[in-house]
Give the backbone structure.
Amino acid sequence: MLVGDAHGHVNPVRGMGPAKLARRFKGSGGWLYGLVNLLTWSVGIDASCAEEYRRLYDVTVRCAEEMRREGLVVPVLLGPHPAETVRLIEKGVRLEKAVEVSVEAYRLAAEYVKRGLAHGLGEAGRPHWPVPRRYVEACTRVLRAALELAAELDAPIHLHLDPTVEALEVVARLAREVGARKVVAHHVSGALAERAAELGLVPSVPARSRDLAASSKVLGSSVVESDFLDDPRRPGAVVAPWSIAKTMARLLREGALSEADARRALVENPARLYGVEPPA
């Protein structure tokens, strides 16, 4: 079974790193790994200004190059996670300044897309953990700016959202307003995945049995993700990319998914999303 993992990470500092991850994933049928940069502090970077994100982006681009040498197709997505904006505010940076830094970091990420070093932006969005309302509003401002850049680039953007219908409806409205066409609702399943599809977003379904089965109605218009962190301190927090093929095969045997929808989610849809040729 060919497996396209639409959203995952790699940590060359604390984890197994790009080469080992790529070999293990490819050995399980992996053909594409959508590589999203980690949080700055996950790789030992303390970013207080936008220019410092260049170090994070360069690390991610180098990891992608190493993974490609192992035979994977590796689209790269760059940009600050909403946790970066929240942390700046919590460190005492004025809210307006924190928004400015995060937006400028997305403008820098857009330059990487223009230069062909990255394929898209993300993950932008809103905190999924309890924070003051003004923090959510600050992150939403960053999100809108990132969507505007994605529209200008006609590039995919991955969104990290609080798991609510309201959040999906907010971003769908913003995407329509700015003309962003390739908007991925990261880590959604079940009713949320169905609502995301209804709103014209691309659901990215976690590769767990329960999430895939619950999203079967819209899997044919979705992509599948591991959201792998490559962090040995959190082994059970997310899905291992090399487990996706076994999980999908089991659900196919049980009749929970169709072969046509599985191929769309694992091959055709990620290829279309990232503008790459699918394997035969």
Observations:
- The chain has one domain: 3-274.
